[in-house]
Every structure is written in structure tokens, then in C-alpha cells.
Amino acid sequence: MSSTQLHHLDRVVIRFAGDSGDGMQLTGDRFTSDTASLGNDLSTLPNFPAEIRAPQGTLPGVSSFQLHFANHDIATPGDAPDVLVAMNPAALRANLADLPRGATVIVNSDEFGRRNLAKVGYEANPLEDGSLTDAGYHVHALPLTSMAVEALADFDLTRKEKERAKNMLALGLLSWLYSRDTGGTEAFLRAKFAQAPDVLEANLVALRAGHAYGETTEDFAVRYEVAPAPMALGTYRTITGNQAMALGLVAAAQRAGLRLVLGSYPITPASDVLHQLSALKHLGVTTLQAEDEIAAVGMALGASFGGALGVTTTSGPGLALKSETIGLAVSTELPLVVVDIQRGGPSTGLPTKTEQADLLQAMYGRNGESPVAVVAAGSPSDCFDAALESVRIATTYRTPVILLSDGYLGNGSEPWSVPDVASLPDLTVEKASAPNAVDDAGEPVFHPFLRDEQTLARPWAVPGTPGLEHRIGGIEKADVTGHISYDPANHDRMVRLRQAKIDRIADTIPPLAVDDPDGRARLLVLGWGSTYGPVAAATRLARSAGASVARAHLRHLNPFPADLGEVLRRYDRVLLPEMNLGQLALLLRGRYLVDVRSHTAVRGLPFTAAELAEVIHAHLLELAEAPEEAR
Predict the structure, then answer these.
(1) How many CB atoms lie within 10 A of CB 92?
(2) Which of 271, 321, 596, 602 has its CA 20 to 30 A from that of 121?
(3) What is the DSSP letter of 98?
């Protein structure tokens, strides 16, 4: 038995990296689940190649999974790994630049042969030339592949099949190193491989062998423990943004008393929402996998016309294809929820990487004056609440709502406090059931564009309801009657009414919450969407260094909160980080005539807290040197 010491840590960032066939996503996911069961706060960042199977051992084929867990509240997956588990030279080379001095590197030395080294440009073996230790890393070169094969020597499996278990062996070792219980992973494996007992037993043996190696080796002088984070009472589970999105849509449909119909075409990184909803037929969910993006949104809009909650999911290129039908939904004034899990563009771009560059497309990517509501989720678990809010707006105001998430949120995970269903908002919808006017002869008649005085929403009339026959389509309709109209004055009125309907949504949006502890901050850091975590973490860093800085985050992007202009003018400077080239900054400058300062990046990765903290510090220095800066 080793004489390993136990050290207690506040937080740890671990990154598993290897070839796309090495099971790094599964390994990270299982370590995350076991960590969640111990009550740590956590945040994850899966990062995988776009190619279905890139050439083995090459840099484009590297897949990684980063997990940040702590004994306190955290907001991001961490800026840099404390521990890198690299399964081959490509994984080491692709991730080494992210490691701080003093980081631990656990390397599968079996893969560091001459051929694999040459594939990624290593002229010498970094495990042997001293370069890693000279750089200040604590290196553990372990023959993980050979160890897995040896542990499974008694199994009637091919060598290649035995080698596949190396990720479970690594998981067992890391579970020991960070005091994680493996019971949850063992239960997962039993369920996953119930029909393949040999494979099940091989994975269990490899997992336990890795854990046992940690207990008996002298290679690790210290093991670590991270205590649970204090959390409010409740039931918690780990959830990804796409899982939360699916559950939020179902919960919203249930609270609205509507059948949920999803029309979707598979596209990365939105496909998981389709996968999640397709398993929930017992909750009144109908999923339709269409032949293309245009058909998918057409199915969803048709479902809304038929009285259901029509939803379609996509990513950037698919949103472009759906634009004509979204415009039809604007014209027909029917509820429709369009979920856009943003990714790097343009065109196919970076299918598996994150970006926030669809905002202007969501706002204006249709012909004519075609206003829609736009909502953005801020964290993986917030995707649930953003889905509820999007359904509320769509059904209350009879409008399409574009709900923006992105690859970082959709694939990332964090703890989620499972809400009591009874505590969720009542979204009950009243549909038209009888004529709402009389004609010149005094006979009952239905006017499809006779609007609600408060919301300006038109009646939602289900086809087949007696007495509610009316025209539907994209050609302009006359106000109130719904008859086809080419009258210039009527078109002007209808365009303004549709815009006014969107504007009135602001009446039900809460005031913008501003985090300004001492009330004396001159700099406001504003975020939207998935910048929520990095901005929160960066402002904490700045404040811990003595800076006074305010923070706010936007969920509603069209319309904006009614008090947004007043909030922006309250500060000498507004800093707006975005994973695009300044799209929201452009909108805010035009709307409020405020000199919003952009900080942008389009690297396919989220901002780091340290990066934003430096930007905040630079702006504070500028403000200090120009105390009379005009607001």
C-alpha cells in the first residue's frame, strides 16, 4: 500500500484529451457524474473535432473534455487545466500551451512511438528529453494501453478490444487521485452493456484496475479531495444545455396545456434536443425528423396552425434556410419557437465549436419588416428557464420567438436544481371558440385579426372549429377582417401593428438586474447569452483585486428591457464582450446612442475569466486617467 498523503483543495480543473476514438467524452462525462454525486459545484467544456473520424493520432482528431469542480460556486469550466490526461502525442501537443507551470500531466506512454511523434511534428520524445519537466510540469508517463491489456489478460477478447478499455483504466486512476466514488460509473456500465456481458466485465475490471493502481503505486505522493459545495436544499442533477432545453420545452407545453410538436433536421450541435424529445412521447411530445431544414420549420408552423406548440431546432446554417417560413409565421401571427444552438460560421464553418454570431440573423434575417422576439439562454441550466420564457412569449403574443443557445451551453453541463412543477408559471392559453363580431346584417362573424387590447395578439383559431373559418397565408391581410389586401395604408398599419406587438413584450420583462455592490462603479460589463459565466468570473477576479465594477446580463434581446437605456447611461463606460465582431454592441449604439466598447473573439472557444479580467483592468485604467469622460 502506498504512503500517499491526502490534500484538500478548493477547486480543480481536469482535461481529458485523446484521439476521437479514445472515449474522452465518455470518460469526462462519467467523471462529471461521479463528481456531481459528491455535491461539488461543476462546469464542463466538451471539445471535439468536426470530422466524423479524423486520421488517427493527428492534431485535427484530438477530442477533449474539461471539467472544473469546486467546493464553492463557480461560473466557468476553468481557464486552464490543473491536470491534463493525454492519451497520445497529438493530445499532448494540442493542449500543452494551455497548461500553467506546475500542472500535472498524465500521459499514455505506450502511444509515444516514433510514428505517432512524427505525425504531430515532435522530433524528439518529450517524455524523454526533459522538456516537460524543464517547463515546470509534473509528469507521470504511464503505459495505460499495456496496463489495460494486462488487466484483461484472462478475457477472451482481441488485443484491440482490450486496448479500448484504457479510458476506463484512466478514469479509475483519476477517480482514486481525486477521491471520486466509482459506483455511479459501474451502474452506468451495467446498464449500457447489459446485453454484452464480456464487454461489461472488461470495462469494470479496467476501471477497478486503474483505481487499484493508484492505491498501490508510489508514483503519486499526494491524492486530493474537494469538499461538497454549499447549495440550497433541493434535488439536483447534472444537466447539459441541450437536455435542459428539451425539458424546458416539455414543461412549457405541459403548463400551457398544449401538445408539443418538434419539426427538426439533424444538425450539430442542436441534434441532442431532437434526441432528448424523441424519447418523451409519453409526455405528449411528437417529434418529426424532416428531410431538410425548410420542411422541419414548415412542420412546426403547421402544428401551430393546428393548435399545438410548434417548435423547430437548428444551428446557424439551418436558421438561414428557415427564414422564409419564419417570415410566414410573422405574417400569419402564429406562435412558433425556433431554437438556434449557434456554432462557428459562415457556411459550414466550425460545426463543433461555439460562437454568438447569429444575433443579427435572428433579428433581421428575413425579407421585409419581419420582427420576432429574441431570447438568449445564459448557462446550461438556464436553457430550461429560457425555453419556458420563449413559449410564454410565443403563445401570449402569437409570434415566432428565436431562442439562442450555442455549442458551449448546449454541450456543457452544470448542476441544476430540479424545480417543483407546481412552481412553474401558468402558461395556459385561451383559443378562439366562437365568433367575435357581427357583420352588417347582424350575423355572427369571426375576425381573425381582431386584436387583444393589451398584447395586440390576434385570436388563435384551430382549423375545424365551427364558425371560425378564415384565410391564412403570407399575402398581406386587411386589419381585423383578414381579407387579402394590397391597400398601402393597410400595409403600413399592419407592419406597425406587428412591430408594436413585439414592443409590448417589454411590458412583461423584469427590470434589468445590475450587480453593483457599492453603487460607485464607473464601468458596467454587459453580457448576453453564454458570456454569463466568463463575465461573472471575470468581475469576481477584478473585485478581488480591489476594483469597483458593475455587471449586468441580457436575456431579452428583442425587445430589450424597458430600462436598458437608463442603465447604460448610468455608467461612464459600458464594456460588452461578445463571441462575434460586435453585433449586440452595434444594436445598442444605434438604439441608445451610447458608446458601448466591444471586446470580441471568434476562436470557437468561450472567453476565459483571466482574459476578461485583464480587459476590465485596462478599461478601469483608462477611466482613471480620464475622470471627466462624457457619458
Answers:
(1) 26
(2) 602
(3) G
Query: In this predicted structure, what is the pLDDT of residue 54?
Result: 81
- Peptide bond between residue 559 and the one before it cis (omega within 30 degrees of 0): yes
Regions of the chain with pLDDT less than 50 = 1, 630-631
Of 583, 580, 577, give the one whose Cα is nearest residue 535.
577
CB atoms within 10 A of CB 501: 22
Pairing of strands 556-558, 373-376: antiparallel
Residues sharing a CB contact under 8 Å with residue 1, sequence separation 6 or more, in sequence order: 215, 216
- Total H helices, total E strands in the chain: 22, 24
Report pLDDT digits (tens) over 600-631: 999 999 999 999 999 999 999 999 998 655 44
55 CB-near residues (< 8 Å, 6+ apart): 61
Q: Which three cell numbers stand for residue 328?
A: 410566414
Pick the closest to residue 345 from 361, 335, 357 (CA basis): 357
Q: Indicate the residue type of 366.
A: R
Distance from C-alpha of 357 to C-alpha of 342, rounded to nearest angstrom: 7
In 290-418, at which residue ranges do the beta strands (DSSP E only) sit? Answer: 309-314, 336-342, 373-376, 400-406, 413-417
Paired residues of 139 in beta bridges: 105
Best CA proximity match to 424, nearest among 610, 568, 247, 184: 247
Q: Report yes or no: 355 and 580 within 8 Å, Cβ to Cβ.
A: yes
Neighbouring residues of 489: CB distance < 8 A, sequence distance ≥ 6: none
DSSP, collapsed to helix, strand or coil, labels residue 340 as strand
8-state DSSP, 343: -
Tell whether the torsion through CA atoms of 290, 295, 297 and 303 is positive or negative: negative
Q: Do residues 256 and 430 lie in contact, with contact meaning Cβ atoms separated by under 8 Å?
A: no
- Angle formed at CA 431 by CA 462 and CA 556, multiple of 5 degrees: 110
The one-letter amino acid code at 577 reads: P
DSSP letter at 61 equals G
Q: Would you call 580 helix, strand, or coil by DSSP? A: coil
Are residues 571 and 631 in contact, defined by beta-carbon separation less than 8 angstroms? yes
Taking CA 512 as the corner, what is the angle to CA 509 and CA 513, rounded to the nearest 5 degrees?
125
Q: Transcribe 392-444 into DSSP letters.
A: HHHHHHT-EEEEEEEHHHHH-EEEEEPPPGGGS-----PPP-S--EE-TTS-E
Cell numbers found for residue 177: 487521485
Per-residue pLDDT of 158-190, as tens digits, reads 999 999 999 999 999 999 999 999 999 999 999
The kind and range of the H/E element at 95 are: helix 89-95
What is the DSSP secondary-structure string of 14-47? EEEEEETTS-HHHHHHHHHHHHHHTT-EEEEEEE
Per the document, the length of the chain is 631
* Contact yes or no for 28/65 (Cβ under 8 A): yes
pLDDT reported for residue 631: 43
CB 631 within 8 A of CB 567: no
Query: Chain-centre distance of CA 544, in angstroms?
Result: 28
Tally of CB atoms within 10 A around 389: 24
Radius of gyration of the chain (CA): 27
What is residue 4's three-state secondary structure?
coil
pLDDT at position 231 is: 87
The Cα–Cα gap between 549 and 575 comes to 10
Exposure b/e, 362-378, CB count within 10 A at least 16 = b: bbebbeeebbbbbbbbb
Looking at residue 238, what is its pLDDT? 95
